TrEMBL record, chain A:
One of its GO terms (molecular function) is ATP hydrolysis activity. The keyword Transport applies. Residues 20-268 form the ABC transporter domain. The lineage of its organism: Bacteria, Pseudomonadati, Pseudomonadota, Alphaproteobacteria, Rhodobacterales. It comes from the Bacteria. InterPro entries: AAA+_ATPase, ABC_AA/LPS_Transport, ABC_transporter-like_ATP-bd, BCA_ABC_TP_C, P-loop_NTPase. This is ABC transporter ATP-binding protein.
Amino acid sequence: MKDTEGYVTADGRQIGGVLMEMRNITLKFGGVTAISDISFDIREGEIRAIIGPNGAGKSSMLNIISGFYTPTIGEVWYKGAKRPPMKPYEVARMGVARTFQNIALFEGMTVLDNVMTGRLTHMHAGILSQAIWWGKARDEEIANREKVERVIDFLEIQNIRKTPVGRLPYGLKKRVELARALAAEPSILLLDEPMAGMNVEEKEDMSRFILDVNDEFGTTIALIEHDMGVVMDLSDRVVVMDYGKKIGDGTPEEVRNNQDVIDAYLGVPH
Amino acid sequence: MEPKSEGTEGLRSIPALLLRNAAQFGDAPAYREKEFGIWQCWSWKRTADEVEALALGLLNLGVNPGDHIAIIGRNRPSLYYSMVAAQSVGAIPVPLYQDAVAEEMVYVLAHCGARFVIASDQEQVDKVIEIQDDLHQFEHMIYLDPRGLRKYDHSHLHQFSHILDQGRAARDEFLPELERRRSALTYDDTCVMLYTSGTTGKPKGVVLSNRNIIESARAASEFDKLKRTDEVLAYLPMAWVGDFIFSIGQSYWTGFCVNCPESADTLLTDLREIAPTYYFAPPRVFETQLTQITIRMEDASPLKQRMFRHFMAHARKVGPKILDGKSVGLLDRLKYALGELLVYGPLKNAMGFSRVRVGYTAGEAIGPEIFDFYRSLGINLKQLYGQTEASVFITVQPDGEVRSDTVGVPAPGVEIRIAENGEVYYRSPGVFVEYYKNPESTADTKDAEGWVATGDAGFIEESTGHLRIIDRAKDVGQMADGSMFAPKYVENKLKFYPNILEAVVFGAGRDRCVAFINIDLTAVGNWAERNNIAYASYQELAQHPQVLETIKRHIEEVNASVAQDEILSGCQVHRFLVLHKELDADDGEMTRTRKVRRKVIGEKFHDLVDALYDGSDSVYTETEVTYEDGRKGKIKATLKILDAKVVPVTGRMAAE
């Protein structure tokens, strides 16, 4: 498969060329090698899962994509160009948004305000104009509010729009986090364990939202998830990591039949 | 039957009323819907424009006069005016209950032979697609919200906005045909077909003509002096006749604005924001709101609680009198005014009732205590008695003559007759044309002179002329000793307690009465939380000893109250159990308008009824339940059966 060529998924979706490519990534913390020499790509419009047992280095990989970590060795290519070392907010401006494994919302603020923070990268008015809410700041906020309201409508959280996040149950907080990431209108959305700790119904809802986001906005999604049923159902291609190494990469079907993957998950007798 | 409103004004159909409204006050709001956090407004002009575009689009799709177009979804302006667009091209709108499962829909869609379906979203589209193989006449489906539908096969599926665009594009081609069809509508053409939920048997398609709807809407609007500036909140199922009369009939007749909530979950917020002036709700809604207030007051500070109790006691004493314009002492009036400032006003504001000029409750009898609660706050809540077959109105309560135990005087243009057996009959301009494709049932219900049997037993109070309904005629029975058995009377008393959501009393032909109780999870759950009582499920909470003890106390209080009634004192509840599941329409135990199906429940839970009568103190049962997506499952439970104290009735023996 060439970089510019796409492919067609099992359910008939057209996937585009390479959007982001990880080339020979190695990440070391002192003497510990969290990730060693991993390469894979994420194509435009696909749902790409990263799976692996605990401690495999999945979250570290997501942190490299989001710019939180800089790889010790290796390159990140984004939209056809090598990405220089960047601060996370600079990466965010380039169209990468994420959610966190442990919810990172402003608990005291309302859902609406939290989601509005997702628009920060799109706001350019000066601090003075924002303080008196005049001219450009006002126009900008109205335009951004409209975008936010569309996300709120999309994720069906209208009824909690004005509720402080701290009062919400866990499953809804996860949804609010997704809303905030979506509000940034990202080209690529990183989800760190979006279903962790959810009950079956919440998982079903979240899966539907992820599929709808991908379908409706064409957003590329990279997700880490432990629920294998969800991963196999949702994703187009899966990267499998174990002890910082890539042990598998391919469609859910290929990965499922990969002996290394089975061994990593079920364990092998020594 | 007054020709003056027909011939001279030429307003013989809903589309004709729409054209009048657009011409006379085109800029006034016709619909509002909250979307993206803002109330979006449709003026009458815009409504007329969109109805025309949709009607042209429907012509483009090949809709013929007399076709049935099913409408499925929650209350949204586009779905309301879809019905008017359907009428404009001579088709018949058939609104369906949106929460119906696919098997229920298949009966209605096949029975009316709908060629077209207008559905709100993916959920409804999926249901229709699931059953479309059983629908031989079904051809095209139009959906409002495109979300998730992108990948569907679009050979028979169309997006609503595209149909509007196609209609506008084909305006020149189809406009003459539209005008021809629109002007051909007569007073006797079908306006809408509504399926009655039916507490027994299969739903029946009630055919209502333009005459039925417009005459009923006109009479009722004049009765309550409705104005163009009135506001209603449309949140009740569109398939229900009441919603059709209020949100289409009366709205198009008087020209008031229909407001649609953002989603079902935001209803209470939207209600507060809109503060309707004309409000309509089944007793269940009022019960729920009262339960919520009670719960929230229990969580309030002691000072607020005392203030609330003090002023509510005063309101109960003088509130209804003030509302009815009766004489009340100056001191009491002053205290009531203070209460309005401190308690009643804020309370009404919190419930969204600040501006209610006329409020109605119907569909079922409302508990007198609940009714009085709202009236004592100064909310002009009234009762009406109606049926789908009557285009709603049979009797209504005039201002100043409102009581909780009657349903009012005959509505304008309605005649009432009580048959030998106590059954209520009526005749009015609103009387339905027929049951669709069901001449036997039509003949059973409506006689040659146009009298319709209500199926309810009642009598007219001689002194006031008010109608009193005792119960469903077929529910009123006799107990073994020959005394009268009226289950609903007892159930309504039980349902007043916030802890009790639903009650079903059995006793026909038996020597004593027994009852099933459904606890209200919100109220009982809140109580459990405050008392540190842990529970894992509805089932577990329902069988908690303290809950059972509380319910027992409620029943004993009700028994004491029932004992006061000379005729019905035999209906005291001797034994009861708390059900392990909530009665649900999906399981066929209730109608979609949430009336209990007594017979179905009696048969389905016959093991429980037997246990209540054979003296055992617990019973094991398994119940099949239907999940939202139609899958079936089983609930197993062991239910405790408790005895309740009854008040011995000696008076009757002496009287005999």
